[in-house]
Sequence to fold (199 residues):
Amino acid sequence: MKINGLILAGGESRRFGSPKVFATLNGLPFYRIVLNQLLPFVSETAIVAKNDLMKQFSIGEGDRVTLLTDVDSFVGMGPLAGIYSAMERMEGDYFVTIACDMPFLTEGLITMLIDELMLHPDAMAIVPVENERTQPLCAIYHASCENVIKHHLQDGRKRMMDLLHVIKVHYVSVNASNQRHFMNVNTTEEYETIQKGID
Fold:
């Protein structure tokens, strides 16, 4: 069984004002923080981003990273396009998929999701739920989702929740003790707040 990592870095970052993927926390860009958490668990990782950002990533040989853009047919169609683009180009059974703007992700959370995967091998997705909020951008997807996603995108259906409604999902309740597990940074105000929190 081959488990790959997948970092989704293709958002427009309109409210943030600059590409969030390169925003820093404790001196590290967001993509590096997420990548460091994934490395112990995955064979290789894809970072899916826009073409004009590619030269800004700093990737070492030991990182086992492939930089990808959306496939031409689905450019700009959101996270589903990013997931499909990685699945189409990489061999693997599962993809641990994380949005690049979740810098508070922990190895403990990834371990829990993989443990649940082992207990529910028939599931096409392992998706955490915290405080009744489903978190499809911090989840594990089986490679068999590829064709389902392709058909959704061809029909113009871009919502992650639309995918979850038609595949077999195992939902995992996550203890709310760490409220920041799934915190994503959308605005400069939110970014300033988390920076103050680590001072």
About this structure: The domain at 3-197 is CATH 3.90.550.10 (Spore Coat Polysaccharide Biosynthesis Protein SpsA; Chain A). The helical segments are 30-38, 79-89, 107-119, 145-154, 160-164, 188-197. The chain has a mean pLDDT of 89. The radius of gyration is 16 Å.
